[in-house]
Write a structure and sequence with these properties.
The chain is an alpha/beta fold. The chain is built from 17 helices and 12 strands. Helix 1 packs across helix 9, helix 2 runs antiparallel to helix 4 and helix 4 packs antiparallel against helix 6.
Length: 532
C-alpha cells in the first residue's frame, strides 16, 4: 500500500516492524515462513501489472515466478533478524507465550536492543543491495523509493542513495516495534519505550531540516533546453504487428511534425516508437531526415541496432542491440548507446543452451545483446551533454550513476511501458526513476510510449506530467514541450553519491556480515507457536 497506485508512504514506516512483530517468538523455520508469506503477498499484489501483458499464459508464469522469487528477500530478512536478537525467546514448561515474550523483551539492555534495531535496518539494506544485483538485478519498489514524494526526507539520497532512506524507514519501524513491545510488557516504565521511540524521531527531524535547507538553497539556471517529448501510446499488440508498422510510423511522423511547430532544440522518441531499424531502412531514414530539415532540431530515438561481426573462430555473428541514437539537424547519426541491462525473460533468456524449457516463460523468440560501455550524447551547438537510459535502466542506482558522470547536464530515459496497459506500473516506474535525480543531483527527463512522460528536477519532484491538449492523462497519445533548466557545470552540485557510489549500502553489508560472524550458534528451543 506504500507504493502506487495506493501510494500511502506512511505504511512503509510500520510494515517492517509488523513483519518482525508477527514472527517474534517463532522458531527460525516459522519466522522464515511468515516472512515468505508476507513477501509473496506484497509482490503478488505490487506486481499485478505483469498480468496486463497481451500474451497468453506467459504473464501468469512470469508474475508467479518473479513474485515467489522476490519473496525470498523479506523471508531471509525476518529469519536473519531473529537470529540477531540479543536474547532468546524460550518458553519454559507451563509458561505462556505472552509471559515468555515479555521476559525476552525486557531481558536485553537498551544498548543491546538499539544495536539490534540498527542491525535489522542494515540487514534490510543488505538484501536490497543483493536484490539490485543478483541475476542482473531487479531493484523495483525498494523501500526508500516509497518516500519519493516526501522531498524533505529524500534529500539524504544525494549522500547515501536510495538505500539510506530504506535504512531510515526500516530502523524507525523496528524502533516502533520495540517501543510497542516494551509498552506492552512494562506499561508503567514509560522511559523504556520512549528511549526507543525518541532517537528515530530526532533523526528524522534533523534530516528533514537538512532537506529543507537544500530545497531552499537557490539555484540559478545558466540556460535552458527546449525539448519535445513524443508519446505515441502504441498498444503492445500494435508494436508486435508488422502489418501495422506503416500506420505506426505515419502517426509518429504526424505527431512529431506538430511538435516541431514549437521549434524545440531536441526532440525525443521513446522506446518502441520507431517500427523499423534506423540504420537499415532507407525510407524511414529519409523521412526522418526530411522531418529534421529546416527545424534545426536534434533527435534522440530508440531503435533496434544490428551489428554483423565474426567470432574468434571466424564464424559470422549477428548481434542485436536495443539502442538509443542521436541525430543532428542534418539527419546524421552522431552517437549510439546500446542498452546494458536487459530485461530478464523480456529481452533475453538466461542459460537457454542448457535449460531450453525456459522459453516457456517468455514470448520472445530471440535475444538482445547487452551493451558494454557507458555513452554520453552531446549537442555541441547548445553546449549540452546528456546520458541516455533505456527502459528500466533508470530503476538501477548504479547504472544511472555510471551514466551521470563527466559533466552530464541531465539523464534521459526512453521507455516503453505500453507492455502493461494502463496500470500502476507506469507510476511505480516513474517513482523509482525519481530517486536517480536526487542521487545524482541532475534532472531526469522521461519519454514514454505510454506512461509518465515528464521531467524530474534534481530534488526528485516530477514536473509537467501528462500529454495531450489538457495533459489530463499519462496514457494518451500526444506530446509535451518542456523548458529544461540547465546549470553551469562549474556551479552544479556534485553529490556524494555520484562521487562514491553505494559506499553506504556496502557498509551495511559489511556490518551485517561482521555481526553474523560474531553471532553465537542458535541453541535449540522447545517447539512453540508464534504469538500473533
Amino acid at each position: 500500500m506504500a507504493f502506487p497506485l495506493a501510494g500511502v508512504a506512511g505504511f512503509a514506516w510500520i510494515a517492517p516492524g509488523l513483519l518482525l512483530g508477527a514472527a517474534f517468538g517463532a522458531s527460525p523455520r516459522q519466522a522464515f515462513r511468515l516472512g515468505y508469506l508476507a513477501g509473496a503477498t506484497h509482490y503478488l499484489i505490487g506486481l499485478y501489472w505483469l498480468l496486463h501483458m497481451p500474451v497468453s499464459f506467459y504473464p501468469i508464469l512470469g508474475w508467479l515466478a518473479l513474485s515467489l522469487f522476490l519473496a525470498l528477500y523479506p523471508a531471509c530478512w525476518v529469519w536473519g533478524c531473529g537470529r540477531l536478537w540479543p536474547g532468546s525467546v524460550v518458553i519454559e514448561p507451563e509458561e505462556s507465550a505472552m509471559i515468555a515474550i515479555k521476559r525476552a523483551v525486557l531481558q536485553p539492555s537498551w544498548r543491546q536492543r538499539t544495536r539490534w534495531s540498527l542491525l535489522c535496518a542494515a540487514s534490510w539494506v543488505t538484501w536490497e543491495i543483493i536484490q539490485s544485483r543478483l541475476f542482473t538485478g531487479f531493484p523495483w519498489n525498494l523501500l526508500g523509493a516509497s518516500q519519493q514524494r516526501l522531498s524533505l526526507l529524500t534529500q539524504i539520497a544525494d549522500r547515501t542513495g536510495v538505500y539510506g532512506i530504506s535504512f531510515l524507514v526500516a530502523w524507525t519501524s523496528v524502533c516502533l516495534l520495540l517501543a510497542a513491545l516494551i509498552l506492552f510488557s512494562a506499561p508503567q516504565q514509560r522511559w523504556r519505550w520512549q528511549a526507543h521511540a525518541l532517537p528515530p524521531f530526532l533523526v528524522v527531524l534533523a534530516l528533514c531540516e537538512m532537506g529543507w535547507m537544500r530545497l531552499m538553497t537557490p539555484s540559478t539556471p545558466s540556460g535552458s533546453l527546449r525539448i519535445a517529448l513524443i508519446q505515441p501510446s502504441f498498444p503492445q499488440t500494435m508494436v508486435w504487428d508488422d502489418t501495422r508498422s506503416a500506420d505506426r510510423f505515419e502517426r509518429l511522423i504526424a505527431l512529431s511534425t506538430k511538435a516541431m511547430e514549437s521549434r524545440p532544440d531536441l526532440m525525443v522518441w521513446p522506446e518502441a516508437a520507431l517500427p523499423y531499424p534506423l540504420r537499415y531502412d532507407v525510407r524511414a531514414f529519409d523521412a526522418i531526415t526530411n522531418l529534421l530539415a529546416g527545424h534545426s532540431a536534434w533527435l534522440c530515438l530508440a531503435s533496434d541496432d544490428i551489428v554483423f561481426s565474426q567470432d574468434s573462430a571466424g564464424a559470422a555473428r549477428t548481434n542485436i542491440y536495443n539502442s538509443a541514437f542521436l541525430l543532428n539537424p542534418r539527419g546524421e547519426i552522431k552517437a549510439t548507446y546500446a542498452k546494458r541491462r536487459l530485461v530478464l525473460f523480456g529481452e533475453y533468456v538466461p542459460l537457454l543452451d542448457w535449460l531450453p524449457f525456459l522459453r516457456l516463460f517468455t514470448p520472445i523468440t530471440g535475444g538482445f545483446t547487452p551493451g558494454d560501455k557507458r555513452v554520453t550524447f552531446e549537442l555541441p551547438d547548445r553546449r549540452v551533454r546528456f546520458a541516455p537510459l533505456i527502459c528500466f535502466e533508470d530503476a538501477f542506482p548504479q547504472s544511472a550513476r555510471e551514466q551521470a558522470q563527466d559533466g552530464v547536464d541531465f539523464l534521459l530515459n526512453l521507455t516503453n511501458d505500453g507492455w502493461f496497459g494502463e496500470s500502476a506500473q507506469q507510476w511505480q516506474h516513474a517513482q523509482n526513476a525519481a530517486m536517480r535525480a536526487v542521487e545524482n543531483g541532475v534532472p531526469l527527463v522521461r519519454c514514454a510510449n505510454n506512461g509518465v512522460t515528464c521531467w524530474i528536477e534534481p530534488h526528485g519532484r516530477m514536473m509537467e506530467t501528462g500529454v495531450g491538449p489538457d495533459a489530463a492523462s499519462i496514457y494518451s497519445e500526444g506530446y509535451r514541450i518542456i523548458e529544461l533548466p540547465l546549470t553551469d557545470e562549474a556551479t552544479r552540485h556534485r553529490t556524494s553519491y555520484q562521487r562514491y557510489g553505494d559506499i553506504f549500502g556496502w557498509s551495511c553489508v559489511a556490518l551485517v556480515i561482521l555481526a553474523a560472524l560474531q553471532q553465537r550458534p542458535l541453541r535449540k528451543r522447545p517447539r512453540s507457536s508464534p504469538t500473533q
